[in-house]
Design goal:
The chain has no helices and eleven strands. Helix content is 0%, strand content 48%.
Length: 128
């Protein structure tokens, strides 16, 4: 049974930092593209960042470019999201996701349909 478990969420002031982690079990971790999405209250779940199987390629939503960094450690079956300069509009539940597609420029990494497995999410609250 595949499981993705997010951790690291919490309450932080605007301008602060958080590091999210997502550890998997039951998944051939190193062959999956991994991503982070977020969902704010009353809004659609939106793409944040994705990373290729080897970690050599990353993509970011424009809203987080330059402030967030996605990384992975295949030996630990874990993907991370380092979030710096957080803004109040970053308040959301953050989800990690795994997809079996190859991450390329045209692979629609931002599309939820690309991902086969999802975690339960971790809450991030950014106070102003």
């Amino acid at each position: 049974q595949v499981q993705l478990d997010e951790s690291g969420g919490g309450l932080v002031q605007a301008g602060g930092s958080l590091r999210l982690s997502c550890t998997s079990s039951g998944l051939a971790f190193s062959i999956y593209t991994l991503a982070w999405f977020r969902q704010a209250p009353g809004k659609e779940r939106e793409f944040v960042a994705a990373i290729s199987k080897s970690g050599g390629r990353t993509y970011y939503a424009e809203s987080v470019q330059g402030r967030f960094t996605i990384s992975r450690d295949n030996a630990k079956n874990t993907v991370y999201l380092q979030m710096n300069s957080l803004k109040p509009e970053g308040t959301a539940v953050y989800y990690c996701a795994a997809g079996s597609f190859l991450l390329t420029i045209g692979s629609s990494a931002f599309a939820r349909r690309q991902y086969d497995y999802w975690g339960q999410g971790t809450q991030v609250t950014v106070s102003s």
